[in-house]
Amino acid sequence: VALVCRSEGAQLAAVRLLSSHDMASERAPGVVSFSPLQTYSEEENMMREAVKKYAQERIAPCVSKMDENSAMDEEVIKSLFEQGLMGIEIDPEYGGTGSTFFSSILVIEELAKVDPSVAVLCDIQNTLINTLFGQLGTHQTHLHKTL
Question: Signal sequence span per UniProt (predicted)?
Answer without folding.
Answer: none
